[in-house]
Amino acid sequence: MASQEGEAIRKRAPHVDMVFGPQTLHRVPSMLDARGNNQIAAVDVTFPEIEKFDHLPKPSSDGATAFVSIMEGCSKYCTFCVVPYTRGEEVSRPFEAVMDEVIHLSDQGVREINLLGQNVNAYRGENQLGDEIDLAELIACVAAVDGIDRVRFTTSHPVEFTDSLVDAFADIPELVSHLHLPVQSGSDRILNAMKRGHTAAEYIERWKESALTAPISASRRTSSSASLAKRKKILKPR
Ligand code: SF4
Questions:
Q1: What is the distance in A from the centroid of ligand 1 to the CA of 171?
Q2: I need a labelling partner for 97 at 20 to 30 A (CA). Which of 7, 19, 142, 224 fits?
Q3: What is the DSSP string of 9-30?
């Protein structure tokens, strides 16, 4: 919410010293310095795209599993959601930066990599040659790293669920047969009102072969009994 409100927070609560969003977390030390020297409030709610990842400490893990952020933000603007306004548009980390992190974690004994993103299957990272790498290609490269036995990813959006990602489940043994794919509703009317960009039938087509977990949204105010019945129907095992 800090990203959304910015200076308005200071106006409402003058005793607040610093306002910053998740994209400028790494600037906290310099904001503290500025605050200490000048005694003026520091407000930084900008959206630098990749800068944060270059400043955060190198990832470490003392277990077999580690999480690697590969993209942030969301450009889908569902009607019920604040994320695009607070986290910014979708931004993917460069391919080599992600791979360096995976190799570094593998060297520490990590065996399972969880690729993370607000809309993880919208990943389109550039490599050093300027080519665009999608999530399916990235998974194949991560799975090929020595020592990596399992790859997972979360959270996906149904409209970004490409054929290449479907093929990845068939072709890459390290990719775990589990998919987290939010559906939100089984009613086309509600899905349309939410601006989800797909129908219930299109969703079912994508997941019928998968072991799946799926968040559902429901509002008593906007959901008719017919919509709630459709929600139950989409949950029935095929
Ligand atoms: S796709 Fe997800 S994160 Fe993006 S606006 Fe919709 S609900 Fe929010």
A1: 29
A2: 19
A3: HHHH-TT--EEE-GGGGGGHHH
Q: Which residues does 183 contact at the CB level (< 8 Å), separation at least 6?
A: 158, 200, 203, 214, 215, 216, 234
Omega prior to 65 cis, within 30 of 0: no
Cβ 157 under 6 angstroms from ligand 1: yes
State how far the alpha carbon of 132 is from the alpha carbons of 71, 102, 124, 180, 234, in Å: 14, 19, 6, 24, 34
- Please tell me the distance between residue 76's alpha carbon and the centre of ligand 1 in angstroms: 6
Measure 118 CA to ligand 1 centroid, in angstroms.
8
pTM above 0.85, yes or no: no
- Distance from C-alpha of 102 to C-alpha of 116, rounded to nearest angstrom: 12
Domains of the chain: 1-50 (no CATH), 57-176 (3.30.750.210), 177-238 (no CATH)
- Find the helix or strand (DSSP H, E) in which 69 lies: strand 65-69
Task: Write out the two tokens for 180.
Answer: 């987290």
Secondary structure (3-state) at 68: strand
- CB of 159 within 6 A of ligand 1: the answer is no
Nearest to 188 by CA among 233, 219, 227: 227
* Residue nearest to ligand 1 atom 1, measured at CA: 76
